[in-house]
Amino acid sequence: MMFCIVIKWLTNWDERAPPSIIGIFTGGGKVALKDVLWGSLDGADQEWFQLTAVMVAMILLPIMIIPEPIMHYYHQPAFHKEKKTHSSHTEPLMDDDQDGGPKEVEVVPLGEFYIHHGIEVVEFVIECISKTASYLR
Taking the domains of the chain in order of start, what are their residue ranges? Predict the structure, then answer.
């Protein structure tokens, strides 16, 4: 969006009316002739760039969603202690408490990491859409 704003400010619009940035973002990658901001006047260059950006985002979305919870799961301190100190998962892992007594340290299941991460991704997407819509208003 910042790229579009800077291009719109720096372009001389004497020959035609300036395009609407809202139209660029709501077109879903397609470019109407009235919304051509840069490149050829028929919008082919801008449409190619926008469709490529949408495709890259669609490819990167699963890459962003799937591996992160797995990494958090395997980087739990309790997970590493359990692997080092116990040969079986049946006996609970005990750790020293601040009071001097042992306390049980549990490994958080992978499903909980996926649920938590899924909620964060939904919040991030809604926040991005909300901020973009608020600015374009």
Answer: 1-63, 66-137
